[in-house]
Specification:
single chain; about 150 residues; alpha+beta; 2 domains; two-stranded antiparallel sheet; 4 strands; cNMP-bd_dom_sf; RmlC-like_jellyroll; Cyclic nucleotide-binding domain-containing protein
């Protein structure tokens, strides 16, 4: 996994240098890749879990993310036997690593996603004034539940 990850980072650095990007942008990209490696070790479990059959995927999710389920009130309320909900939920999981200052979404984006904060803090900010509406800490969620409840 590390070799593949280093090749991906090297390819991005090569691309940025070929495009004549300033060194500070190249350095920032390298910092992002290093941060991503430190937080995931190159393994994106949500992607791997989606390859499993639904029943097994749900069981693996409950084992791997029991701490997240315990910290998120709306997940605690869902019956573990509700395979329709959990099947949809786990089939759409995407794990991403963000760095300070990255935008997850904007208020003009369609309300079709649910965000779970697995670690760190996510700020809900008014873009023009930088006013912080809310701080979402690890275990909190925001966004739209409708895609999973249809």
């Amino acid at each position: 996994a590390e070799g593949r990850f280093r090749r991906e980072m090297g390819g991005m650095v090569w691309f940025l240098e070929q495009k004549g990007m300033p060194q500070e942008l190249v350095d920032e990209a390298v910092a992002f890749y290093r941060h991503r490696w430190e937080s995931t070790k190159g393994f994106v479990d949500a992607y791997e879990m989606r390859k499993l059959p639904p029943n097994l995927r749900v069981q693996v999710f409950f084992e791997a993310y029991s701490g997240v389920i315990g910290a998120c009130g709306f997940l605690q309320l869902r019956d573990r036997e509700d395979l329709l909900f959990w099947g949809r939920f786990t089939s759409q999981l995407i794990a991403r690593t963000y760095m300070r200052g990255d935008w997850l979404c904007r208020d003009t984006d369609p309300p079709d996603r649910l965000w779970l904060v697995l670690s760190g803090t996510c700020l809900e900010v008014q873009e023009e004034t930088s006013y912080v509406f809310h701080r979402h800490k690890a275990g909190s969620w925001f966004g739209e539940l409708a895609p999973f409840l249809e």
